[in-house]
Amino acid sequence: MIDHRVRVRPSADRLAPEDQLAWKLAAVATATGEPTAEAAAMAVNRVIDNAAVAVAALLRRPVAVARAQATAHGAAGPGASVFGSGLRVSPEWAAWANGTAVRELDFHDTYLAADYSHPGDNIPPLLAVAQHTGRTGADLLRGIVAAYEVHVALVRGIRLHAHRIDHVAHLSAATACGLGALLRLPTATVYQAVQQAVHTTTATRQSRKGEISSWKAYAPAFAGKAAVEAVDRAMRGERSPSPIYEGEDGFLAWMLDGPGAEWTVSLPAPDEPRRAILETYTKEHSAEYQAQAVIDLARRLRERTGPPQRIRSVVLHTSHHTHHVIGSGANDPQKYDPGASRETLDHSVPYIFAVALEDGAWHHERSYAPERARRPGTVELWRRISTVEDPEWTRRYHDPDPDRRAFGARAVLTLDDGSVIEDELAVADAHPAGARPFDRAAYLRKFRTLAEGTVGAAEQDRFLGTAGRLAELTGPQLAGLFPEAGTDRIATFDATLPEGLF
Questions:
Q1: Which one of 81, 196, 293, 416 has the lowest number of neighbouring Cβ atoms within 10 Å?
Q2: Per-residue DSSP letters for 240-293?
Q3: Structural domains in the chain plus CATH codes
Q4: pLDDT in tens, 322-333
Q5: What does R_g of the chain's alpha carbons equal in angstroms?
Q6: Is the pTM value of this prediction over 0.85?
Q7: What is the pLDDT of residue 212?
Q8: CA 257 – CA 23 distance, rounded (Å)
Q9: Read out DSSP for 93-141?
């Protein structure tokens, strides 16, 4: 890996394109060759995972709205498929609809370091453009691996959350790079696209604060759509605000630590294997990633606590991020509100711990049902749960060694007789270093579980067989990566939506 120091530069310096971070990211993408067998296999896993969570979300309102918007924009040319519609639309709108479907349940992959990310959000725009342009499965795999490489590098090197900037700014840059690798574009073209994408997708984190709305699902889809459009403009010769990262009125100077700060972004050498996708991890439970280990910990503690009514208090000792973003340190009363939205509840670790402790299980729908959240006993327990930041957990969260990095918590439960029960879990059971690391069989089970009732058994088999042969697929065969769902049921649901502009 090569460390690149990035700092703000005055316009008078006339920083050459080749010395800018956007160019270096583009160069990683355009130098990406065929992925290793291990990286390609993991990319296939994530394609399966994305389809699983998208299919499970087809009858959710934000997904249906995005689908309605997309299907109003028919394809000029081959176009790209939309989950649940059976139609092809313009690729940027397919990226929008499919990106929303993938993100809606907060149930796909994650990478956490200096900042946060869901690198699987890169896949919908890449798949849409691959379909539209007739690229092969091998081309798509190359693009996915390149996008993950850039995304992970940015998340490791540049922290956005401390300045309340949403993490989709890193996503749009990674998607533009993935598209460049997929299409084998010149580095100069990808460089322009990266800058346009970052410039147009920088937003605040209010989308993840207070009463969290459906925009949490739309935000990455918006970034993917913007990246597709940026690549289109760059291919047509249009230029961008430059240098987008180092400029004195640019992203780093005004959105982050100011003109005097420096950042280090580590990128692979041109001939170095692209392995970043192997450092990312998916979810067994439909909740914010830092809640994954907490769910597993609650299920384990359930055997020791007895009736939840006996619990006087629960304190979760955890990292800065968990405490301040999904814990009581966020100071969001909505995180303790039984009438809060699903999007808010899946960012409330006190709620998640309470339900997992009571039920000994987690379900992507039942665990968030309004009647479940309003259950009186749950509300009482929920409001006795708090979080505190523990510097040691924060240090472990940011450990540079992925084998030592931890995203869990230590739970201290005080019972009504004054006795105390303590336990901790560093990583989720499904984490690569966990008790039951996710393997291909686990991805297949997750798909079948989430597709049940929406996708027939024969169609599940067909989809999984197609995805398993991704590297061999021709351009027309990429349509097989969209499981056929019960379109009559979906059409009936879509008909209940109010009309918009399109």
A1: 416
A2: -SSSTTTBTTSHHHHHSS-TT-EEEEEE--TTS---GGGG-B--SSSS-GGGHH
A3: 2-279 (1.10.4100.10), 289-425 (3.30.1330.120)
A4: 999 899 999 999
A5: 22
A6: yes
A7: 64
A8: 21
A9: HHHHHHHHHHHTTS-S-BEESSSEE-GGGGHHHHHHHHHHHT--HHHHH
